[in-house]
Amino acid sequence: MKSTIRDVAKYANVSISTVSRVMNAPETVVEEKRIKVLEAIEALQYQPNGFARGLIYKKSDTLGVMIPDIENPYYAGLIRGMQDAAVMLNHSLMICNTDRDKQRTIAYVQSFFEKQVDGIIFTSDSLHEEYYEEMQRYRLPFVLASTNAPEYDIPSVDIDDEQGAYDAVKHLIEAGHRRIGMIGFPLGITISGEPRYTGFKKALQEYNLSENENCIEFAIHRFEHAYDAAERLFTRCPELTAVFAASDEFAMGAISYLRDNGKSVPEQMSVVGFDNIRMAQMFIPKLTTIDQPTYDIGYRSVEKLHELITTGKVEVLREKLPHHLIVRESTKTYSS
């Protein structure tokens, strides 16, 4: 059987608290006792139990992370940034996939509390009142990554989704397109659905193209949903020459539908995505897209949570990171 801290204390003829101090603050223990404890640890091959230490010190150096869809390639960069920051700050991550299911999300909050995580990062989903209340009930520090909740004073790291969508549509308009559609996230359900649709409309209105506002179809989250939405969109608005897709995966779904129906991109249809996932530059044609700094969002969210845990506050409550338009092969200048 594995040795316990009690075994070490008995072997060294000291108290359990003395053993604990030797492991965590050795300078506070007189040399004679410190040597005895170290000899006992070596003789018994004692290894401290991290969970038990967490119970004693109310600190586990573990952060809980909630991801809505681990299969979505968007989260690869986000998690990589979180992991690198966690390593730098001596934390480990516990990642859970919620599937945007309310009961599962609440159950994960309870599980994180039971496992003594020091804080939670909640990503890319709406912060429903039930989630907020649950985390408040357990007094768990938490930070929002790639999402925000203006109604609560919760630290967040994301981008300006409305401005990003505006920039994408403006690029199409300045390339000469006047019949522009959109494949977007459902409004009022997903956190980025409303602002990206608002950015789409804002660009159209600014250039007196408001007649295009109704040329929008909604997809839930994935490639296949966007493929079906593209069929509905191009059937209803066959005169379109360009499409803004609310994610790169949606853009890929739209392009695949166009290809399957004899339309070439960008020769007959320009398509702009959003996110700049790694696949965006591998896809054919390479995607023109809005680059979200996913790695930086992940990294900063861990830094911000670490700041909240260690100081009880953050210097910047709502942090917006810059986005960039990346022009590749899926768009071209329109000539009638």
Kindly describe this structure.
- The protein has helices spanning about 5-10, 15-25, 30-45, 50-55, 75-90, 100-115, 130-135, 160-175, 195-205, 225-235, 250-260, 295-310; strands spanning about 60-65, 90-95, 120-125, 140-145, 155-160, 180-185, 215-220, 240-245, 270-275, 290, 320, 325.
- With about 325 residues, it is α/β, with parallel strands linked by helices.
- It has a six-stranded parallel beta sheet with strand order 2-1-3-4-5-11, with helices on both faces. The chain has a six-stranded mixed beta sheet with strand order 7-6-8-9-10-12, sandwiched between helices.
- β1, α5 (about 75-90) and β2 (about 90-95) form a beta-alpha-beta unit.
- The protein is elongated.
Distance between the termini: 80 Å
Q: Average pLDDT, to the nearest integer?
A: 91
Number of helices: 12
Q: Count of DSSP E strands?
A: 12
Strand content: 15-25%
* Coarse morphology: elongated
Radius of gyration, whole Å: 26 Å
How many strands, what sense, and barrel or not for the largest sheet?
6 strands, parallel
Runs in which pLDDT lies below 50 for 5 or more consecutive residues are none
Instruction: Please provide the ordered H/E string of secondary-structure elements.
Output: HHHHEHEHEHEEHEHEHEHEEHEE
Helix content: 40-55%
> Order of strands in the sheet with the most strands?
2-1-3-4-5-11
> Structural class, from helix and strand content?
alpha/beta
